[in-house]
Structure formats: C-alpha cells, structure tokens
Design a protein that fits this description.
Elements: E1 7-11, H1 24-36, E2 41-44, H2 56-70, E3 76-79, H3 85-94, E4 102-106, H4 115-127, E5 133-137, H5 139-142, H6 148-157, E6 161-166, H7 171-180, E7 186-189, H8 195-200, E8 205-208, H9 215-226, H10 230-247, H11 254-262, H12 279-289
Parallel strand pairs: 1-2, 1-8, 2-3, 3-4, 4-5, 5-6, 6-7, 7-8
Helix pairs in contact: 1-2, 4-6, 6-7, 9-10, 10-12, 11-12
C-alpha cells in the first residue's frame, strides 16, 4: 500500500480564469502534463491549490475532476486538514473518497495544539477513515511543529497512518524520524530545495510544488537520488535550485503559477490574499527559463 506513494508526488495548483472561477480546462492540461512527465502520484487540494480560498463545493468538484481525469493512471491523494477537529471529520464524510488512494492531513494551524492535542487530533482522523493517512508537518505555515516522538507514536499506534510529509526544514528532526520509524512507514520531503538531501538520508520521495512546472527534471532528480546516483542527481539539483528558490520568493503558488503561465498551461491568476508574482520576480523567472 505504501509503495504507491513513493517517488515524486505533485501538489497540484488550482488554475483560475481571469474572473477567478476554477479553470477546469487548464487543470486538465496540468494533469496531463505532470502525468506525461512521469510523476508518481497526484495530490489534490494541498496548500499549493490555494485551498483556503476554495469553497467546500469547489473542493469537492476539483477532487472529483482530478480523479476523473487521472483515470486510474496513478494514485490520487486528497488534502484534508483543519484546526477544528470536529469540523474536519464532518468534511471528510462530505467528500467522495471512494476512488481516492490516500489522505494528506496537515497539522492544525494557528491554535497551536500541544503534542498531546496533535496526537488526539490525528487519532480522530485515523479512527474516522479507512483510507491511508499521510501526516503533514509544516511549522512555517501552521505555527506548530509535530515532534518526532509524536510522529513515531502515531506511526506505531495506527495501521492506516502510513507516512508523513515532513517540511520542518530541520534535518536532525528528519533523521530522528527516519532512524526510529517502523519499516513500512514512508517519509516524504515537503521542501523542494532539500528534497535531494532528504532522499539521500533515507526519505522515500517528495510531495512537490516544483513538479508542477519543472516536472521532468525534478522527477529525474528524485529518481536518481532514490537509486543512489547522487553525482548525477547533484547536477540536476544545482541546475534547478535557482528556479526552485524563485518559485517561493513571493509565496506559494505565486512563483509556480507564473512559470505555468509562461508554459501556456494556465493563466497567472491567484485568489486574494495571494497575488501574482511582481514584475521583478517575473523577469527573474523568465531569465531562469531562458538560461
């Protein structure tokens, strides 16, 4: 079960039309683009999808569309998280997860639960679904860090908590999880600029923003790293590193949508409070793409 989530997962953006309505034709182009360029699984409704700005109806429609257009070509993971555990469980029941292969659930944000609170939150999630659950730790966005002891307790206590997307940026914390985790518990990088290093210390892959646009090269980077061809992987890593940094220079997904617009995949439209990349950043991105 866990093997289907190894390699490169892509956290899909949500394309919008100029009127800020969801652009399903562009979303289909994006899905076909990333599948053609050899990612291993899709993640719908992650942070990169501007999910906080989507209505529940839009979320359900986008998920159904991604599942339909993927058409069984690879696994689909659905992002479902929140900082109100009761409401999160209601939302899980309202989504059609029948053809979804797993759930990615972020740590509660803003209200800063204790480690015991985090454990009980994810216990509730695991107890209320039969789907594989991938935890998501991203303290830079949520304001709370799920410590390795909590991750490992969840990994050992619940069969359907099968992995974590770890985006703390703390290599020592990552190594502590990797050193003590159950053998079949997957650990995925959540930091594109650290993904090669993360795989080198034992992670199983990545859930990536950059894989939306630098798809073929980024997937190659991860595949080379997984098989230990680090000399070759290092060349790809440094080729992409400036571009990856540009994607995040003004917040995600401003950079990646700018690149996707340059590629003709979607409009460079975001929903407030996110705004498109500045003129200065656009020029740097164009220079990188032309280099």
């Amino acid at each position: 079960m866990q093997s289907q989530f190894r390699g490169t997962g892509v956290a899909l953006v949500t394309p919008f039309q100029k009127n800020e309505q969801v652009d399903y034709k562009a979303l289909e182009r994006l899905i076909d683009h990333v599948i053609t360029n050899h990612v291993d699984f899709l993640v719908a409704l992650g942070t990169t999808a501007e999910t906080p700005t989507l209505s529940n109806e839009e979320k359900r429609d986008i998920l159904a569309f991604v599942v339909e257009k993927c058409a069984g070509r690879m696994p689909v993971v659905c992002g479902i998280g929140g900082n109100n555990t009761t409401e999160l469980l209601k939302q899980m029941k309202s989504f059609d997860l029948q053809n979804v292969d797993g759930i990615l659930s972020v740590t509660p944000y803003y209200n800063k639960p204790s480690q015991d609170g985090l454990y009980k939150h994810f216990k509730a999630v695991a107890d209320n679904t039969d789907k594989p659950v991938i935890l998501y730790n991203v303290p830079g966005r949520t304001g709370c860090n799920m410590l390795p002891a909590t991750v490992l307790k969840l990994a050992n206590d619940f069969e359907n908590i099968i992995g974590i997307k770890e985006a703390s940026g703390n290599m020592v914390q990552c190594m502590e999880i990797l050193q003590h985790k159950p053998d079949d518990f997957i650990v995925l990088s959540g930091d594109d600029n650290l993904a090669m290093a993360h795989v080198a210390i034992g992670m199983d892959g990545v859930i990536s923003v950059a894989a939306n646009c630098f798809t073929r090269e980024f997937t190659e980077l991860i595949n080379l790293s997984i098989v230990g061809k680090l000399d070759k992987a290092r060349k790809v890593h440094y080729k992409l590193l400036t571009g990856i940094d540009l994607l995040f220079a003004e917040g995600n997904p401003a950079g990646v949508k700018c690149v996707l617009a340059e590629m003709g995949i979607c409009e460079n439209v975001l929903r407030m409070p996110m705004v498109p990349a500045s003129s200065a950043l656009k020029q740097k991105i164009k220079a990188f793409l032309n280099s």
